[in-house]
Amino acid sequence: MIPIRDNRPTRHKPVVTWTLIALNVLVFLIEWSAGDAGMEAIVRRFGVVPSVLVEGQWSLPRAAGGAQGAWVTPLTSLFLHGGWLHLIGNMWFLHIFGDNVEDELGKARYLALYFAAGFAAVFAQAAVDPSSAVPMVGASGAISGVLAAYVLIHPRARILTLVPIFIFIQFIELPAFLFIFIWFGFQLLEGALSLRQSAGAGGVAFFAHVGGFMSGLLIGWIFVASLRKRRAHFIRRQAWPPDLPLR
Known about the structure:
With 247 residues, the protein is mainly alpha-helical. Helices cover 60% and strands 9% of the residues. Helix 1 (15-33) packs across helix 2.
């Protein structure tokens, strides 16, 4: 399923979302310009390698097979991508869902949720496959957290969705809660199937998506509950018009 658009307009320009997309594109262009060998070297140095984080020797530099400097990779890996399709898919989801979450939570909370979900995604995947030597890159774990927050804020929003059915393409409007939980169910299913593969086999890090989504639900719930309580307080004092966003 590919989301085309939602029916929830935003009140403010999504500056943070646009900045995140621009940074991801810029970093990928740097990767791409380095050629195949250079791109592989960048991914191996700045992507998350679970076996290095979990089992690596922190007294040795990465060039010597150690883990020294690997502490930065949970952050740097969020801005790296393995190819154009990987980048475009992630940035499209961020474009569709990120602006609404930023609009409701505010810039600081939105960034906090984005990076917390991204870090949770990294450690979830490393916990499931700690011996993997395959570098993990991509913003999809952080974006999974954004999807979780979106469904908390706008569960009844309508998502125009492209659904390929064999050789036919259908456009269907789905409620946000249905679209996102179908997506999440697919991540769980594929994650369970991936456990049958040999350790370090590579491919999509589905448990990173699961970990990012679950952390996004928790953090998003805390933020949304706090903001709604604050908003209700101001409305009772007749100091906050009820049609303003959560923040």
